[in-house]
Amino acid sequence: MKITWLGHAAFELELDGVTVLIDPFLSGNPKAAKSPDEVEPDLVLVTHGHSDHLGDAIDICKRTGATLVGIYEIAVHAQNQGVENVEEMNIGGTIEVEGLEITQVPAWHSSEIVEDGEIVAGGTPVGYVVSGEEGTVYHAGDTGLSMDMKLIGELYEPDVALLPIGSRFTMGPKEAAKAVELIEPDVAIPMHYGTFPPIEQDPEEFKREVERLDVDTEVVILEPGESYEL
Ligand code: NI
Ligand code: MN
User: Fold this and answer.
1) In which domain, by residue range, is 151 found?
2) What CATH code is carried by the domain that includes residue 9?
3) Has residue 8 got a pLDDT over 80?
4) The pLDDT of residue 61 is above 80
5) Which residues contact 65 (CB under 8 A, 6 or more apart)?
6) For residue 109, which ligand has an atom nearest its CA?
7) Which ligand is nearest to the CA of 29?
8) 67 Cα to the center of ligand 1, angstroms
9) Residue 198: nearest ligand to its CA?
């Protein structure tokens, strides 16, 4: 399993020979490690409608024929925009696509898609657990800390947790470290920081907070474009 951080909340997973893009906010992302034309996903997972997550998902799916996975409202929006292959789901559900198990889990945030000042689609924000033979990854999406994370850890036992640490819109380092304590993954990779000045954050602070806890989790800090292999 290979996990590449594309900057912000965008990740490319290579799992059981399937390429999964999560939250491909690439154009307009000052830290993007790839352009929307450089990705060839099989699946695109969208955590919520904000432009720094939905990003280029619709255009990428239209160009590549990749399947877009989203909560019902996002899936319908994508379909209306001309995406051919869509998997709609909702929190708590698991689907099997391309041989991978994908579960939508809760995230505490908001989700409206706003275009030109108008709300064009809604829905609830989510996180994803993606599981295959080679391992299990939890992408938390944009979220505050919640006890739900303990259930995610217990039920799905993720090897890797991708956690926002930027604060202001999501958890900060202190809350994300507490999340690690609840989830107990083998590896935690921080995300959703450093993209823009309002979410400037030192990932080493997150690492120190985790090291202070009684957990065996290794914090892996990536640069945009860097990969972690497990
Ligand atoms: Ni958001
Ligand atoms: Mn965000």
Assistant:
1) 2-224
2) 3.60.15.10
3) yes
4) yes
5) 84, 85
6) 1
7) 2
8) 22
9) 2
